[in-house]
Amino acid sequence: MNIKKRVILTAVIVGIGLALQAGSLAYLKSAGELPVVSLEKSLADFPTTLGTWQSKDLDLTEEEDYTDEHFKRLYYNPKSQGAAVEFSMTYSSDGSDRGHHPEVCMANAGLPENPGGRALVQVDGHKMPVQRFLFGKPGQYILVYYWHYTLKPQLDESTSQLQRFYQRLQRRPSSATLQIFARYTDESDAERIDEFVRAADAEFQKHLPEGAVRGNRRLPVTVFRRDNTPG
Predict the structure, then answer these.
(1) pLDDT per position as a tens digit, 78-128
(2) d(Cα 66, Cα 214) in Å, to the nearest integer?
(3) What is the rounded distance in angstroms from the CA atom of residue 231 to the CA atom of residue 220?
(4) What is the pLDDT of residues 9-57, one digit of tens each?
(5) Where are the alpha helices (DSSP H) in the chain?
(6) Which of 105, 160, 171, 229 gives 20 to 30 Å between its CA and that of 221?
């Protein structure tokens, strides 16, 4: 076969490959984008009191304002030796809240983890428990509780598994992440905050649409913010 025929044959093969690729991509895209799932109630509607816990709103920094909704409050309990927690709640339509995790963010803040302080806090309503961490140094420890809810969309039954996989590659499901930060001196602090976590989660479940699933695992890769900084 002479060079001219080889060039023509190569061009034909490449053309067929590109046509097949374009057809496959068109098939995948025909399912549309992954539907956005909203919370049943805004985060701003979360109660300002939980039992004997009272609260006041905290301002968000520009760095923290990275999702569709982000609410942060200080809850304090005058009847429990002045116990106080910082409660952060975020919701994002595209799962961008999941790109922030205590293991990354606390390390960036110069606070090492004490692995022996890890614990799982059992909470009603969903199978997955809340993850508890301990960061800092002796005398300056901070408890951090982390968990999230994936808001599962109603998918078109006519779409294939391949199309659904492609939808998730293009955009993560809507989700909400909750984090609680509190000072730690001894295990009695953890026990008090564990109870707050259970009360807060029970209330937060009223904000969730049907089918939401609780989790506590970090994404398998470090995700970067829009400004390309991790955490």
Answers:
(1) 877 778 999 999 999 988 888 888 888 887 788 899 998 999 999 998 889
(2) 21
(3) 13
(4) 454 444 434 344 555 556 444 445 667 889 999 999 999 999 999 999 9
(5) 3-29, 102-108, 161-170, 187-204
(6) 160
- Domains of the chain by residue range: 1-30, 33-215
Tokens 């205590």 — which residue? 102
Give helix then strand counts, H and E, for the chain. Answer: 4, 8
Residues in a beta bridge with 184? 141
Compute the Cα dihedral for 168, 174, 176, 177 and give only its sign.
Answer: positive
DSSP, res 72:
E
d(CA 85, CA 69): 20
Tokens found for residue 217: 């695992």
Q: What angle do CA 156, 18, 25 make, to 5 degrees?
A: 10
